[in-house]
Write a structure and sequence with these properties.
It is a single chain. With about 140 residues, this protein is mainly α. It has helices spanning about 5-15, 20-45, 55-70, 75-85, 95-115, 120-135. The longest helix has 26 residues, at about 20-45. It is rod-shaped. The model has no long low-confidence stretch (mean pLDDT about 80).
């Protein structure tokens, strides 16, 4: 009897299956493999974490094409893309500078309100409100 691994051979020997019928050995090998994979997957789950994402067929085909161009599997390509994006630095503008701009826009708006049409003031006010909202989110 030839076993591919020492652990499998030891399993067959421990269960007194060496020299038994091919069907019994085949069944024992399946049982051993099932147990081995169960333990292996349990260890992997403890060492790593999963992220499961679902794509539409069109999205997946686009990802697969790009991965094939790079000689990668879609899974490895996705992992590398996520890790690269995660490593890129997010630059948040200087909040003090933005607050100063909001103040200057407010002053400019009041000046425009006195001298120019109302539409121009309203546009400046919209810009000012967008900046205030942006600052409050950061």
């Amino acid at each position: 009897m030839k076993a591919k691994s020492n652990k499998l051979y030891q399993f067959l020997k421990d269960n007194d299956l060496i020299g038994k019928s091919k069907e019994e050995i085949k069944e024992a090998k399946l049982k051993h493999r099932k147990e081995y994979l169960r333990v292996w997957h349990k260890e992997k789950r403890e060492q790593t974490k999963d992220i499961r994402i679902r794509f539409s067929p069109l999205e997946f085909s686009e990802i697969k094409q790009k991965a094939n161009l790079l000689n990668l599997s879609p899974t490895m390509y996705s992992k590398l893309a996520i890790l690269q994006e995660n490593q890129s630095e997010i630059k948040i503008p200087n909040k003090a500078v933005l607050q100063e701009l909001v103040q200057k826009l407010g002053i400019l708006g009041m000046t425009v309100l006195r001298k120019c049409p109302l539409e121009i003031y309203e546009e400046i006010e919209k810009i000012e409100n967008i900046l205030i909202e942006y600052i409050s989110e950061k």
